[in-house]
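Researcher: Here's a chain I'd like modeled. Treat it as a single chain, no partners, no ligands.
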Amino acid sequence: QVQLVESGGGLVQPGGSLRLSCAASGSIVIINAMGWYRQAPGKERELVADTTSGGSTNYLDSVKGRFTISRDNAKNTVYLQMNSLKPEDTAVYFCNAKLLPGGWARWNDYWGQGTQVTVSS
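Model: Modeled as a single isolated chain. Structure tokens:
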């Protein structure tokens, strides 16, 4: 059973910081990439940041310089440090992982349940 468990969301004032974490568990052979998406009410889900096992990263333009994605391969965990938060960052944030599960020969995408981030004064 492969699961992604997220934590760290909450309510924060503009300019504040939050750190999201996502841990993958279960029968996993290898994780190729992990990342964060977000979806605001009435909007499409968008990629916020992701990182591969090789260390490459990709960020949404509007979060560059404010958000940092990092990964602990030994713990199968990805983090998103969010600084200088703005009301526009308010959304449900979803963890995503592309991984090879035990007993299978193809990459599968898995999603966390989502964690709410609200930035409001």
